[in-house]
Amino acid sequence: MVATAAFLPNTLVYGASEDKSIYADVLEDADTVTDTSTILTRGNLLNYGTVTMTKVNSMCVRISGITQAHRVCDTLGLDLFLYKSSDGENFSNYRKFPFTKGNDHKLYQTLEVIVPSGCWYRLGGGHVAVLGNDGESTTTMTKGIYVN
């Protein structure tokens, strides 16, 4: 899922949040889901990554993500992956939204996305921080919510 890490030299990939199964839990009555992956080792480039998805109405979800570094980095990357399922179990990639930012310590993006109703959606994130020839990345993945 962390396609952004593919172009980075010497990229360390950290363990992400607990629920990474493509057949993940879904929440029947939730309007908002979120996941955060925090890097626990002090002194790294990457502090944390987080993604949040909120059901706006029967045809729209708001998705957002943050890549936060401990210090100013040459490049920060955030890939938002919107997954879709008709049965709440078998999710497939629906849309991808890649973002990058240079010479900063925080990258934040939010979007409202028109989606078909009557389906389950979940949001994944790829978070990358690069300084010189070193890079670090982590992933996040929310539980699924139903948009009716």
Oligomer: single chain
Distance, first to last CA = 27 Å
Mean pLDDT: 86
Low-confidence stretches: 1-9, 15-24
- Shape by Cα distribution: elongated
What is the level 1 CATH name? Mainly Beta
Secondary-structure element sequence?
Answer: EEEEEEEEE
Counted up, domains total 1
CATH architecture: Sandwich
Count of strand segments: 9
What portion of residues is helical?
A: under 10%
Number of continuous helical runs: 0
Q: What class do helices, strands and sheet pairing give?
A: mainly beta
Radius of gyration: 15 Å
**Strand count, sense and closure of the main sheet?**
9 strands, mixed
Q: How much of the residues is beta strand, in percent?
A: over 45%
CATH topology name: Immunoglobulin-like
Polypeptide structure, described:
The two termini are 27 Å apart. The protein has one domain: Sandwich (Immunoglobulin-like). It has 148 residues and is mostly beta strands. β5 and β6 form a beta hairpin. The chain is built from no helices and nine strands. Helices cover 0% and strands 66% of the residues.
